[in-house]
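Example record

One chain of 336 residues, shown exactly as stored in the release files.
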Amino acid sequence: MFCSAIYPFRILSLPLHPHPTLHFSVLARFTKRKPADTNGHAPGTNGTSTAATPTPPRDEKSMSFLDHLEELRWHVVRMVVVLTVAMGVMFANLHWLVQEVVLGPLSKNFPTNQLLCRISPGLCPEKGIQVTLQATDPAEQFTRAILIAVVAGFIVAFPYVVWELWRFVKPGLHQQELKKTRGVVAIVSALFLLGVLFGYYVICPFTLNFFATFQLAPQVQNIWRIGEVIGLIVQISLAGGILFEMPVAAFVLSKLGILKPGVMRNYRKHAVVVVLIVAGILTPSPDVLSQVLLAVPMFMLYEVSILISARVEKARLKAEAELTKNDPPLRLDQQP
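Predicted structure tokens for this chain:
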């Protein structure tokens, strides 16, 4: 009685293995086998020797919930390791990262500032954006150094993070779905990095230049906290990367049946208002030019999302039509 009572707990206490095929060797220890006959032959063979058939590896569809959690755990572990290494490399090169990247939009040699000088002398910061930076908190520089390393490491390791997530999702897709989602890791990574570069090279210089040149009175000096400047650059850059994922979000929501292209077309005018509001929130400066620079690509991405949603809807309707065509209606005289 006691052995039979603790038997289920022995199975539940077994450690999980990262590969699903390893569970067969563990469960085999608790599997009862029929004894061999008196001649030493295996049961059911009648004295004939047959080659042992190896147990085929279990596919992803037969995996239990705990198996999926174990697979997800190893993917997360690898992502955390890569993110930690990337953040460590960024922290080791923190001085170069702050001087050349974070504070780059304040320099006159920044590519966007040089382009503005060629386009219009009125927009040209000839000596760069002249401001005084200071730290008003004892731990401000250290905490902002951690923030820079974390954000920079995440941006660098973002393609690998997407690849690991795709490796976890990929076994559950059908062949048709795999063909339609080919290159998804490259597309998602490219859109995110393109959005980050757009926010950094386009929106940040205009925003910082506006705040630096705006004055209530000549006696007022621009003395900025370094933490606020770093936070503003990080906010704009990451916001650009997230917004540029709009086509990917439209594809996923359309596949789930949540988003319809007709709804997006009908609410196009409302989308323009929402885009302008979001652009105004993400660009803290009241400068109209910086808001327009962010609103125009956002609206273009909205139009691209409509086309993607329409393509997904067309493919879904075509698949439903073929399914209906291949399955004839059931007659009443047919017996089950």
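Notes: The beta strands are 132-134, 223-225.
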